[in-house]
Every structure is written in structure tokens, then in C-alpha cells.
Amino acid sequence: MIKKALIFQFFFFAIVGFFGFLIDTTTFYFLHFSIDYAFSRIISICTAMSFTFLLNRKLTFKVTHQPFFKSWLKYFLVNATSALINFSCFLELTKASQFLKHYFIIPLVISTFISMWINFVFSRYYVFKKRQLYQPSA
Hints:
Helix content is 79%, strand content 0%. By secondary structure, it is mainly α.
């Protein structure tokens, strides 16, 4: 059975991610009129990633034991990997169909949903993992 705390944490992670998604989508929307489609997406992903790191560190996972830069670096590595998956899915979907390219919100939602699951698992169990205090056996 899944613990209530885990469900609550995932729910909060999803809320933070939703706001990150809004930042991602809004940034992409305004940039794609004036700069390359792919470059617009890279900038929008990085902007959203920075925002979600700050909120997830402070509110979702309540990290105080890790140095800021260390957790940022781990978060960046996990999210960069996930972003590559997100980016690849987005590009493949928009290349596959003019409809999806025109209504870019659809591939944006699909690619973001996939990367959300990857990010939660690795954020919880790697990036913001709680330290286990060593307790010698008696």
C-alpha cells in the first residue's frame, strides 16, 4: 500500500510541476514567434527547471541537509536527462504531424507528462534523498 505521505508529496510535486509547465508553455509561446522553434523550447525548459528546483527543494522535499549547489547539480543532471526525453518526444511529435506542430500544446503536454514521472522518481530517491543516520547495532 502506498503511504499517504508519498501520495501527498507526489501531489505537491505535481502542483509545482503544473506551475513549471505554465512557465514552460508561456515562455515557449512568446519566444517561438521570434526565434527558432527548438531553441525556444530549450530556453523554456531551462526556465521552468530553475523555478521547479527552488520550490521542490524548499517545499516538496523540504531539503535542509544538502548544500544548495550539490542538490542543484543533481537536480539539473536528472532534469537535463528528463528534458532530453521531453525535448525528443516534443520534436518527434511535431515532426510527425502538421496538426501537432500547429497545436503544439498537445505534444507539450504529452512530453511533459512523461518527464514528470521520471523527475519525481529520481528527485525523491536520488536528488532530495533523506540522509540515513548511521546507527551501529548493539
